[in-house]
Every structure is written in structure tokens, then in C-alpha cells.
Amino acid sequence: MAAPWAHRYAQRTKTAKSSIIRELLKLTQRPEVISFAGGLPAPEVFPVARFQEACHRVLQTQASTALQYGPTEGYRPLRELIVAHMARYGILASVDNVLVTSGSQQALDLIAKLLINRGDRILVECPTYVGALQAFDLMGAEYVTVPIDDKGLQTCEMEQALRSGPKFMYILPNFQNPGGVTLSRERRDQLVSLSDKYGIPIVEDDPYGQLRYEGEHVSPLVVLDRTNLARDDGYKLGNVIYLSTFSKVLAPGLRVAWIVAPPDVIVRLSQLKQSTDLHTSTFTQMVVYEAARDGFIDEHVKLIRKVYKERRDAMLEALHDFFPPEVSWTRPQGGLFLWVTMPPGIDTRRLLDVALRQDVAFVPGDAFYPASGDPGSHMRLNFSNAQPEMIREGIRRLSIAVAHELEHRAAAVMV
Amino acid sequence: MAAPWAHRYAQRTKTAKSSIIRELLKLTQRPEVISFAGGLPAPEVFPVARFQEACHRVLQTQASTALQYGPTEGYRPLRELIVAHMARYGILASVDNVLVTSGSQQALDLIAKLLINRGDRILVECPTYVGALQAFDLMGAEYVTVPIDDKGLQTCEMEQALRSGPKFMYILPNFQNPGGVTLSRERRDQLVSLSDKYGIPIVEDDPYGQLRYEGEHVSPLVVLDRTNLARDDGYKLGNVIYLSTFSKVLAPGLRVAWIVAPPDVIVRLSQLKQSTDLHTSTFTQMVVYEAARDGFIDEHVKLIRKVYKERRDAMLEALHDFFPPEVSWTRPQGGLFLWVTMPPGIDTRRLLDVALRQDVAFVPGDAFYPASGDPGSHMRLNFSNAQPEMIREGIRRLSIAVAHELEHRAAAVMV
Fold first, then answer.
1. How far is B50 from chain A (nearest CA, A)?
2. Which of A25, A345, A415, B370 could form a disulfide with B143 if both were Cys (CB 3.0 to 4.6 A apart)?
3. Residues of chain A numbered 211-230 and touching chain B (CB < 8 Å)
């Protein structure tokens, strides 16, 4: 019997699709599967004792605030902590520039609600974060794409894209998801100049900025933005909305992230958040505040960097040892992912089926492109969630699947 | 200097307005103000020790799950607990019928995204919950309204409204917000018959169902729905989507609520939730599960009912003692609110200014009507958040403001 609701679904749901990544998460919960598919932090680095203490202290001393409704903008001491935390990376903001969100995914939902009319074009890197495409799709976005290379977004390719009048640019400058590449300082300067010249604002998504394993920190776009630097009227921040999160430096299960934007944009985003979920859990905000305070995060990320660097190195070494020479990959300086490019003609959805039979998983590249799909043959590999020896074993298994598909392709060509 | 972003805001934000209730919450945080404005539970009934234990147990035994990303549909043991909890109220559902949400406000956002195309008409009670209007407005809803009286929605007024083809009806049958009235059993039967006859589905919002202080429990619409009862194909639930929450029976600060709907609707709502916030905090879901299990809620609501009944009675008594005879009010059998009707011509926004000078607050009625505003002169009073003696004092102060405005009106009429 047909569902009585289906014919009532709104137009916008026609483009809503389940993320292959979240579907894969279910498939890969079999314990024998080594999964490079998710973007999961390592549970070994969750600061459990610190959270125990934080929960105890919050409920002991401030339960009637922590368990009650709270302000939509967020728990004020947490917003102050975020301001102080960002100042260390050169981002000069005040509490009025900060909105606490229920994870960065909610930040993308709110930004889409605020800025996207059906049919608006959004400039995105190609490939880009699948969750952003989902949030933008739902408000009816279309896309202008600019490719990335080892230095990030190819700014030399941008003028034509900007002339088509995109509503904003969505950019992941550090350890890009899925590419793993980092936008060079030179290109960041070019990007903020172009933003200023064409009057096209930037949404800068920076979930991994602190997770750098080698090389020098590069200033965020929100710091380099000239429209910000040029102002002397006390109006803070200019053409860039900046997003970051506690998910990768503390734990994702609490769903606490934030948006930095000019105060009038924060007011509008807060109004939208009211109708979206009233506010982020007061309790988790206060627990994050207690856990993060007194410089804990800066200490804790040293441990995370050490653990993830080992895992990145294990994956790079295993790829070098097991993968055939016609396959290449990026060498990320930080973050959680690397991006593998195979010879053209490999169907990575088919490859995934073969890999799953070997009990190893990855995300096929086409998830990370707007509707047109993957123009090449790519896979995204996550290296944060498995121990180094499991990473080596997983890459060995995956190399068998890759070899199988390369043979299949060769056979097809011969036929 | 003008904000560089304002001219980029999407069409839908033009209707987005800050809820007067949340703005009032800020104003009324002065400790000397007695506020009847919020819908805040009493912090005295938060089960703090139970939450302490729950946090400890979750982090002691399951930290790597609790702090990690989780499934969009929700933590499975919590979904099972919700199914068992609802069965005691006659709602027969399975886990596939349940989606955990970040508060009921998110349920309204997801339903709006799923069902509302710009210009669709939604049938709402008049007055109705302001948060629903905000969520529906954002997706471009228009409204058909049907008035309520002491027995709830006036079902005799509905046929004409239904003939205009609303997309769905949004109904609060128990202790309605803001009216405080409860839909009678007879009208519930009429309502589900009309829903079936016209093929117009119902969204049933039931945040307070367990908070009944007198009278008999009345079956929810989702139970009475004939399209559900008539089915024998194993496909569960029919024309009603049902919403409820842990906010009023445990604590709102955790932001955990749920949607009950046919499985295919749950699948679509889950896809929308993925792009909205990935999932509700794994940690708070597990803490709610640990706090709620083993029948704790049913024990705990006995305490809540006792405390809130005293407060309701204190407010009814004070209204009787202090308010002039030309003012009337509802006598709620449960929930958090009552609804006061004043003689025509009283401007309740002005009245609020006068009341705030007396250090007492309420919500003016026009917040609870679609764009056209309050056709009468109403105020919503919350009785759950203040102690009985403060309630009496607050109503005394409010009666001074009311008397002041009645005199002002009389003077204006004479001029």
C-alpha cells in the first residue's frame, strides 16, 4: 500500500539524498571491516576523565542553569572562551561575533537558510565536503565549481567563475575534505583580493585547523580579509564567515561548534536558529566549557597530533608499499583524510563492492561533487580512526581490490 | 557603514522574526522580575542526582560510543525506550516509527522542510504555538485558522477550512500552548474523521501529555486515527505524525525529543536531519536513556504533577482574588499555561510595558497568531516556573497594570 504522505513531500526534498558516508557507516559497523570511510576521530584520544570531571562540576554547582532552556546565541562563558581561543590564531572577534551551533553541519544549514534563494549559484571547490552540498541543495542551490590541486583551490581559474555572480564561495582552506590539501598563503591572498574585487563573500570552513602534523600554520581567510582589516569603525569582520568546531579537538558526540560573522549576520543567524532548534543543549555547552577551559585544548591537541601523524604516516607508507604505480594520492599536512586518484575508467562504486568483500571500506569520489559526479576515479581515505597496524592491513586489502579492478579494466579494454 | 551581507539575505528571511518570548526571556532575567512569560519548567523538579548517576555510568562504561558520531535516527536503546514509553499511552509503534530530534523545535523544522512548499496553506488552531509558526513561516507557509474554545479546536468550524486544501493540520490537543485548553474526546473523533474524509494529515504536537493535574486522560489523535486502525498490512501508522519530548518530564536543557511517523516518512525526515545537524548529541541521548530507564519517568512525573498543580491552583486563586470581573481566563487541566482574555481595546504590548515597570512579565497574545495578529486582547501566563507565593505576588502586580490599562481605555473612550 502506498504511503499516504509521499505525494505531499515538498519540492526541495526531491534533491535530498542520504549521504553515502552515513549509509556506509552502517555497513562498516561489522567488526571485521577496516573502515577508511568515516571521518571519525580516534576514540583513544577522547579526554574521558576530563569530561567526567566537567559533568560532575556542572551538575554539582550549576544544574538549574545546565538543565534549563538557554539563550539561542549560546552559553556566554563558552562564547567568551571561543573568542579567546581564536585570538591565538589571529582571529580578532568579540562575543557579538560568535554563535554556538549544534555541530558545524547546523552552521551550514543556517547559512543556507540565510543566504540561498532557489537557483542561486554557490562557488565550491571541486571536490568539496558532501555535507555542505546536502545543506545547500536543500535550499535550492546550484553550483559553480573550481578545481583544486596540491596547493588547494586553483585561484587562477576563478575569475570566470566569479563573473557568473555566485552568492558566496564555500572554501575549506586547511587539510581540505576530501582532498587533504591546504590552500597556500599566496593563493589565500589572491582569494581575499578576488572576494573584495568582485564583492563575493566567503564561507570559510575550518574544522581541522589545529590538527597540523607538519609545515607552518597559514593565516585563515577571515584574518587576511582586507574588508575587515580596512575597517576602523568598530564594525567587526567583513566579507568572511568563519566556521569551526570542538568535534575534532574534544569529541564530536557533544555536537558543539561555532560561527564567526559580523554582528548583524549573527543576529539573523540566531533568529533562524530559534526556529531551527531554539538553542544548542545548555548542558553540553557547559560541559564543553568546563572541559576546554584553562588551556586544556592546546595541551590536548598535542596528543591528537601525535596519534594522527603516526596514522597518516602509516597510511602513506602502506600506500607506497602496496599500491600500483599508476595510482597517486595527496600528502596531507594535517586533518583526517587523503585523496587517491586512480587511472581513468575505474568505477569506484564497483571498486567499493569489491573492497567490502575484502572487509575494507572507503568513500567513492563522486559523493564530493555536485550533481555532475566525479570526472575522474577517486577515493577518500580516512586515517584517524584505525590503529597503524590496522591501517597497513586495510591498505593491503584495498590494494587487492584495486589490482582486481585494474585487471578488469584491462580485460574490458582488450575485449 | 552598511553591513556588506544584508543585501544577500534570502527571500525567506524576510519573514523570520525573533520570537518575542525569547526576547522577553532576556528582559526578565533581572532577579526582581516575576516572569510568567517563558515556558520554563521548574528547576526544583530537575532530577539532578539521577543525571549525575547517568553521566557517570555513560562515561564510565560507554565513553567511546557516547563521545563519537552516531546514527542520524538516534541511539537505538533510546528509540526502544520511547516505543515502550508510548505503548503505555496506547501508541503502538516500532523503532522504525521513531526519529530522535534535538528538541521538538527541530521536529517542526524537519516537518516544515519535508512538507511545505512556498505558499502552501497550513491549518492551525487560533491561537497556536509561536515556535511552529516560526518554523513553518521559514519554508513559506500561509495559514488557514480555526478558533479554539474551552473544549479545544472548534471542529464544527472546520469543513470550510479543510475545503481550501491545507497541506496538513497542526494541532496541540492537550493543555494547548497558549490556550491551556484540551481537545475533548468527541472532537478528537470528529477531527480524525475529517482528516480521513478530506485526506488532510495531522501533525499532533504533545509536549505536555503526561502533565495532567485533574480529569481523565484522553487518547491521542495518533491512536484514534482510523487510517491507522484500518490497516492490516503491517504498515504502521497512518495520517498522523506525533511529536513529544523529554523537555517537560526530565529537563529541556538536554534538547532531546522525538517524532513518530510511518517508516517511509521517518526515512525522509532522517535524510533531512542529516543535512540539518547530522544527529542529536550521542552523549545527551545516552544520558537521557540512562536517566529515563526502569520506569523512572513515570515515578518522576508524579512529583512534577504535584508541584505544578499547586502552582496552577495558586495562579487561579490569585486571578480570582485580584483581577477585575471583566477579565476572564481558561482553567487548564494540565500543562504549563493559561490564557487570559481582557475586554476589547486593551493593547497588550502597552500593558506589557506597564507590567514590566511593576517587575512582572507575560507574553502578549498577538505572538500566537499568524500575521494578522490578535483579534482580541489576550495574554499567556506560565505557572510552572515560580513558587506559589511568588505567583500570588506576580498576579497582584499584574492586576495593578491591568487596572491601569482599563482606566486608560476608559479615559480614551470618554475623550
1. 10
2. B370
3. 227
Per the structure, the complete domain to which residue A98 belongs is given by 68-296
For residues A117 and A257, membership in a common domain is answered with yes
**List of chain B residues with pLDDT < 70:** 1-4, 16-19, 22, 228-235, 372, 413, 415
CATH number at residue A354: 3.90.1150.10
Q: Quick one: A264 and A156 in the same domain? A: yes
The reply to whether B74 and B203 lie within a common domain is yes
Asked, for residue A24, whether it belongs to a domain, the answer is yes
Residues within 8 A of A (CB atoms), B 257-316 only: 261-262, 264-265, 268, 270-272, 274-284
What's the mean per-residue pLDDT of chain A? Answer: 93
Do A185 and A150 lie in one domain? The reply is: yes
Residues B24 and B66 in one domain: no
**Range 36-95 of A in CB contact (< 8 A) with B:** 38-41, 43, 46, 48, 51-52, 55-56, 59-60, 63-72
> Which of A310, A300, A317 is CA-nearest to residue A387?
A310
* Global confidence as pTM: 0.96
Q: How many domains, chain B? A: 2
B5 three-state secondary structure: coil
Q: Which residues make Cβ contacts (< 8 Å) with residue B410, sequence separation at least 6?
A: none
* Residue B3 identity: A
The answer to the question of residue A362 being in a domain is yes
Domain membership of residue B5 (yes or no) is no
Contacts of A210 (CB under 8 A, 6+ apart): A248, A249, A297, A301
Same domain? For A198 and A323 the reply is: no
Please state the φ and ψ torsions of residue B167, each to the nearest 5 degrees.
-70, -40
The C-alpha cell that represents A189 in the structure block: 591572498
Which are the contacts of B145, defined by CB distance < 8 A and separation ≥ 6?
B123, B124, B125, B126, B161, B369, B370
- If DSSP codes are grouped into helix, strand and coil, which group holds residue A155? helix
B328-329: strand order across its sheet: B328-329, B337-341, B378-382, B363-364
Do residues A325 and A349 share a domain? Answer: yes
Each residue's pLDDT tens digit, B88-121: 889 999 999 999 999 999 999 999 999 999 999 9
Residue A237 CA neighbour count, 13 Å, CB half: 28
Last residue of a domain, one of B251, B275, B293: B293
